[in-house]
Design a protein that fits this description.
It is a single chain. The protein has five helices and four strands; from the N terminus they run αααβαββαβ. The chain is α+β, with helices and mostly antiparallel strands. It folds into two domains: 44 residues, no CATH class; 84 residues, Alpha-Beta Plaits (2-Layer Sandwich), CATH 3.30.70.3460. Helix 1 packs across helix 2 and helix 2 crosses helix 3.
Length: 165
């Protein structure tokens, strides 16, 4: 069961961590907790599985990265770990993970590449395919057409303010 302080902490972090040198100190100030207590509570909530992970959301377009491609392959399951490990070593690969195959969609190995332009991303994919021996596996390249709002997890909805009346 969540304590009131845990609920307050979750509500605070769902808007993102403050951009400052000591974000947990700042959250603690807002929640009337010490920096150490914030870190301890977040660690406990993560260990309990109530928080899956804390991560950074990079706004690629604002950094000049206009071409984003999800590359998917259909590889034998026994090669996923080996190929995924090799793919993830490339600096231009930002994500690499396995997903289960779905009816009508046989791909099980996914990676994301962000680049300044489409031609650069296509060259990087060619480099990846050659270096990792991926030429014999079915592949799809899915370029982003739109940029969606990126945000972290929402843990609880805030209650709307009541109108005076």
């Amino acid at each position: 069961m969540l304590e009131a302080k845990d609920r307050q902490l979750l509500e605070q972090i769902q808007q993102g961590l403050p951009v400052c040198s000591r974000p947990y100190f700042e959250i603690g100030r807002l929640c009337d907790m010490s920096e150490a207590e914030v870190i301890e509570r977040l660690s406990r909530l993560k260990a309990q599985g109530l928080i899956k992970r804390l991560g950074v959301i990079v706004k690629h377009r604002q950094l000049g990265y206009r071409a984003n491609a999800m590359v998917v392959w259909n590889v034998p399951d026994n090669l996923i770990k080996q190929l995924g490990g090799h793919i993830s070593q490339f600096s231009f690969v930002t994500l690499c993970y396995q997903r289960p195959r779905q009816p009508g969609w046989p791909h099980n190995l996914y990676c994301m590449i962000h680049g300044k332009d489409k031609a650069t991303v296509l060259q990087q994919i060619e480099q990846l395919v050659a270096a990792c021996g991926l030429n014999n596996f079915d592949q799809e390249i899915l370029f982003s057409r739109r940029c969606f709002k990126q945000r972290g997890a929402v843990y609880q909805k805030t209650k709307p303010a009541l109108a005076d009346g």
